[in-house]
Structures are given as structure tokens and as C-alpha cells.
């Protein structure tokens, strides 16, 4: 299992558009991808789950990948977060 | 009848009011025996709904751009969400209900989740969930999409509009959107802004049905909706609308275009501002920079001398908002007609020629230094130039430069970052004109304040209404002075501009271009008119 922590910098938080793009990115990998914020955990391949976290600017999220191609996935998703959120 | 709301996009619309009829998705709970067939019915409806969204995405892409069209991609993803799909299929199977009912119930549950969130933006996403569910239900019910519109363009009234509804509308038939719900983040608001049509939200439309078909006016500047306006109001707004449309046309045609003559001569066109809030207007009118930022407002608005921090924040905000474009800050120009109590200035017989502007600054250096420190600190965040008013001698400029050197030394010592700002002076006294050859050696630029220069040159008090008839802003003496300043400035590589009212006088634009001015700074609303004029001039003719 791989894991990264990230603090949201986008002032609108994870709103609909980046959530949608994140789902697309995550869906490209066979491994499971989850996002946690505090106690809440969501499947990153499901848009309602991600949006339901309600992650706002300044809050920390943890992304975990587990399974086939977990390393490539975590790298790509980390890059995505830096660029979009 | 006059109704107030919140404007999300400026503009004026006059037309008949039309109430947008929400299609009523009456969903009945029906017991299903062949649940697997019902799941298949749902799955194919979901596919069809996704196809519709693809079509809408392509349409929105062309009409409102990628960022705004993205919502339909998001809707598609929502329809692909496994939690959503599983919730519906499980309900069909376990409760033996019809697909419409399962979809509506699931939609309500998911919308409820968003409605309960703290974040206002997220709460509004509840509308998206209802929107996708309604789309699937429409397909299941075999209903057709969209509202049938008449031939006449209308002001559209609605409770709220879903993004798919706004895109499906025939845009050429909508003059304005007015909704009871919605927020500045709602898609209706975003789309109205990209469509350039006035829109109001939060309007108390209590008797929606009764308004249908009546005449109305939307004032997107004031945030008002008039229902059945009287004749006088209607005439007033017809005139306003015409002016507004002309301005918008000009804006569309000229935005992003160069300030260049037909024969290829370019000139900088900047804006004059008197407060931080004016920056929005500067950007909306597509100015290339700020040619005169009057710093007096900081002093006039406060009860005591504004601190370095207060000033720094104001200058920094403007520099940042202008994102690297030039911002020329004029240091304090107080005294004369602009009095401030806490300065403790004595009443003067002749304030225009009295203790004012740079004269106060060089006498009370602590005020001046505080301002210079604030400006230099802000210079780090953009492209700032500094300009000094009411100069009459080289000695004054040298003294200013000594103080600047002291300020920089202090900032270095305190490790506060700053950039090396361009230094310029206002040319607004005949003395400065006559020695402009000497002054040009000392500074990077000149900006001519034509209002004061005209009053001092013609010896006409511009506050005295009796002298209006002989106050000639096109006086040959003034025009010759302008020419002289440009020539003397250019000899020493000093660029020259105009920041007085004359700069916006389009009957002189061609002459200014011929004289060789490098910059004109005008009130924001005049930028595009002057640009229009510049682009019509051909200097190679005559």
C-alpha cells in the first residue's frame, strides 16, 4: 500500500470539477484508490464519495493506493493534486 | 412593481416576462414483478441520459467554453457513480419498485447529503444530483427535453434553473435570467456571465404565475426587476439600454486589441483611479495599466494619518490585481481643494498656489517617508512606478531622490524586499514645462496634469464658474507646452504621458499621437472610446 498526504490549496476546496477529474485519473489504474479526510473515507473512483468528504482549502487529505500499479497511481495522483488542487 | 435582488451580471433587459415551467416529474411508486427487466430498463435509460449529456457538453463547449461545459462531464460521472447506481438497482430488486421511483428516491437521498454540508458551494450541488435524476426519469417516462419557447425574446423568471436547463434554452430568445433561488456560484449565474446577459438572483418572486406575460425591466447594475413599469421608467431604461449596448459592443470589438493607429504607431493606454475598488473597472475596460493612482483617498477616508501597513496593503492589492501591469502611484496631493482636518493646515487665500502636495511632503518628511516605505514594500508584488506632484524645480527632485535612498537603505537593513521602481514627475506647472529639459535628466518619465497646467498657464481659477467661458482647454499656449515637454523628455530617454482630463479628449487624440506621446491615462470608462479613436487615425496622411 502506498500513501501520500496533501493539504488542499484551491480556495474552493475539492469542488465538482476537480472531483470529476480526480475520478477519471483514479479510474485509469487497476488498484484501489481511497481518499480520507479525518475519520471519513471515500472510494476515489466514485465522484459522490469524493465530493461527500467536503474537503476545503487548508484541510489535509490522505490518498492511499493498494494493489496492481499502486506505485504509478500514487505518483500520478500526487502530481494531479499539486496541479489542480 | 419594483423587486430587489442580487445582480450576478450587469446589463439592462427590457421585454416580456416568461415564467419557466418546470416539467413536473410526477413519479408514482409501482410494484414490479420482473425486477431484472426493470434494472435493464434503468440501465438503458441511464445510457441514453449519458448520451444526452455528451450532446449538451459539446453544445456548451461551443457556447460557454470548456470550464463551464465541464459540469456536464461531471454529470456524466455522477451517472457512472457506483454508489448511485447500486442504490437504484438495489432498491428496484429488494423493494420491487419501478425504476422511476428508485431513481427519484436515490436522487433525493444523495441531494440530502449535499444539502446537509456546511459549505455553500457543496450545498448547491444538491441541484446537480436532482438534475441528473430528473434526466433519467424523463428518459424513462419518454418525455421530450427542454421548454418550448415562443418567437419573442423574453426575460426568463424561474424558481431556479438547472445547468442542463440553461444550456438547452434557445439563447437567442433569452434577454435575462431572474431566479428566486440560486447564488453567485450557481450555474445560472456563471452562464449568464459567460453569455453576457443581465441576471438577478434572490428576487422575491412570490406570485410567479401572475407575472407571466407582463412587461418587465431588469437592471443588472442596480439589481432590480420592474414589473409593468410606468412610461417614464420605460423611456429612461430604453435610453440606458442603448448606451449600455453601445458600450458592450465597443468592448467586444476592442477588448484585447492593440492601441495602434492604421499606420502602425502604438501608444500605451492606461487608467486613472482613486481607490482600490476602481481596479475592477480598470480590468473590465481592458486598460493596459494604471497611469495615475491617486493616493489621497487613503488620507481623506481616515480620521488620522494612515499607517504604513494600511497604505502598504492598499498598494499591494492594486499591484497584485494588475498582475504585473504597470501601476503608477502618485504620492500625496493634498492641500488646496482637498483638505484633511488632522493635517492641521491653515486656511489660505489662494490654496491652488499654496502649501500643498510635494511642498507638504518635503516639509513634513515623516509623512512622506511612511508613504514611500509603503510604496516600495508593495513594489515587490507587481510593477509599480512612483510619481511626484507639483514639481517646480530640479532641487525638489534631487531632494526626493535623497529621501528615496534613505528609505531603500532602511528597507535593506530590515531585510524587507522591494523592487527598483521607475520614478517620474507630474508636469503641471509652467515652471516644470520650461525646465523640462533639465528635469528629464533626473527622472524616468513625465506625466502631464493638464487640469492644473491649464489653470496655471491661463491664470484662470478652474473653480470659478464666471470664468468658464474663457477657460479654453485647447488653448494654443497649453498645446505648445505639451509639445515642448514631449520633445525635451524624449531627448533624455524620458517617456511622456498625459494623465489629465485632456488625455480622454478624442478631438485631440490625433494631435497627441503626432506630438509623440508615449502614454495616455484616462478614466476607465473612456479607455475603449479612446482606443477606438486611436485605431481610426492614420498619421501618414495629411
Q: Name the helicity range of chain B.
A: 40-55%
The major pleated sheet of chain B works out as: 8 strands, mixed
Proportion of residues in β-strands of chain B: 5-15%
On the 0 to 100 scale, the average pLDDT of chain A is 87
Structural class of chain A: alpha+beta
Structural class of chain B: alpha/beta
CATH class of the largest domain in chain B: Alpha Beta
Shape of chain B: elongated
Low-pLDDT runs of 5+ residues of chain A are none
Number of helices of chain A: 3
DSSP, total strands of chain B: 16
Oligomer: heterodimer
CATH topology of chain A: Histidine-containing Protein, Chain: A
Number of domains of chain A: 1
CATH architecture of the largest domain in chain B: Alpha-Beta Barrel
Short description:
The complex is a heterodimer of chains A (85) and B (542). Chain A is an alpha+beta fold and 85 residues long. Chain A is built from three helices and four strands, in the order βαββαβα.
Q: What does the model show?
A:
The complex is a heterodimer of chains A (85) and B (542). Chain A is an alpha+beta fold. Chain A has a single domain (2-84), classed as Histidine-containing Protein, Chain: A (2-Layer Sandwich). Helix content of chain A is 40%, strand content 27%. Chain A has three helices and four strands, in the order βαββαβα. Chain A has a four-stranded antiparallel β-sheet with strand order 1-4-2-3, with helices on one face. In chain A, α1 (16-27) runs antiparallel to α3 (70-84). The longest helix of chain A has 15 residues, at 70-84. The radius of gyration of chain A is 11 Å and the shape is globular. The model of chain A has no long low-confidence stretch (mean pLDDT 87). Chain B is of the alpha/beta class and 542 residues long. Chain B folds into two domains: 24-141, Enzyme I, Chain A, domain 2; 254-534, Phosphoenolpyruvate-binding domains (TIM Barrel, Alpha-Beta Barrel), CATH 3.20.20.60. Chain B is 47% helix and 14% strand. Chain B has helices at residues 35-64, 66-80, 82-95, 99-115, 120-141, 163-168, 187-195, 208-211, 231-254, 279-284, 296-300, 308-321, 358-363, 365-379, 394-413, 430-434, 436-439, 450-458, 476-491, 509-515, 527-534, and strands spanning 2-4, 6-9, 12-19, 154-158, 174-179, 199-201, 215-219, 224-227, 268-273, 290-294, 326-330, 383-388, 422-427, 445-448, 495-498, 519-522. Chain B has an eight-stranded mixed β-sheet. Chain B has an eight-stranded parallel beta barrel with strand order 9-10-11-12-13-14-15-16, surrounded by four helices. In chain B, α12 (308-321) runs parallel beside α14. The model of chain B has no long low-confidence stretch (mean pLDDT 89). Chain A binds chain B through residues 12-13, 15-17, 19-20, 23-24, 43, 45-49, 51-52, 54, 56, and chain B through 67, 70-71, 73-74, 77-78, 80-84, 110, 113-114, 117-119, 121-122, 125, 128-129.
